[in-house]
Amino acid sequence: MQSQPYLTDYDAIVQTLQLYLDGSRQGRSEVMRPAFHPDASFFGYAGGQLAVGIAFLFSWIDRNGPAPHLEPRFISVDILDSIAVVHLEVGGWSGTLAGAGVRMSDLFTLLRTPDGWRIIQKAFHWHG
Amino acid sequence: MGESLLQASAPAGPPGNCRRVRPVSSARLTAGLLAGFSGMPPQNTPQRPLHSWKEIAAYLDHSERTVRRWEAMEGLPVHRRHHDRQDTVFAYRHELDAWSRRRTREPRRAMASPGESVAPTETPANGYLVEHDAITRVMHCYIAGARAGDAELMRPAFHPEATISGYCQGVEYNGSIQHVWDWINANGAAPNLQPRFARIEIIGTIAVVHLEVQGWSGRLAGANTRASDVFTLLKQDDGWKITHKLFHWHDDDAA
What we know:
Chain A is α+β, with helices and mostly antiparallel strands.
């Protein structure tokens, strides 16, 4: 593993984002919480309103409920030593708040912590 | 500050040329005559460029902070000479005059937001280019502030709730953007900054900018250090704003 630090980081980042996707699919924020840094921030427009703060995301996920048909694609994973940027396109969103078959573009920035890679910010664009 | 060094190294030009005179052609002509270039007609005298922010500010009759902001956000034509020890700035009076005329002629669209001010050239017709240019202008606020060691220059670039994260000398660092501003002011000038846009990605109302910055210097940055910065931006009614700065200092390859 030590000889392949890039692959180790890459796979760890994808695993962290998998927690986000699992939580989104299940509509359970507690599943995705470990993926986020305690100081994580959150920005984006939801229904034309600016949504700020990671608490908004967790609450939204719980209220939205299951979204079993999520189709995530990793568009880019850029690792710069202790920081990383991931662009995720997620189609097939559904749920109480999301509606049906909508798409979200997500930009995650991550920080490598002693406990592993953690999302420090999620910015999103909702394709309404 | 680098200005004293710049002043010391600048060649001694004619004294008092056009200082505190607004760049209006008739006034300038008079000022040039009054300055008295040893009896030579000013039109035939090769003009010495303005050799420091102080001179440029005096020529435009505004503060150094204002002219640095104009360079960052409104395309004030300022040139740089790269040296080993310290970069220097210079500007040509005729270019500053042309810029002033253009600025007076074209009403600024977004007075409320310095980060969204009109580009010095004509606005591109293509929507993507408009957004791209608006984002690079915001980023140039950050660069100007970093270079000058003046947080006021970069403040308009940030969302009020923006945050910062990264490692500084091995210590994880998270906090409000105020920490960045305090750091910039404490660090002082970093005149040799060499920023490069490694990536600008726009997704509707959000964007990510990866900036590689070499040539950092200052009281806190040390000498000739390098940082990788990832900025996340949000498009608001008053323009693009940075919501997050994520940084990695390359402590290992500091000179």
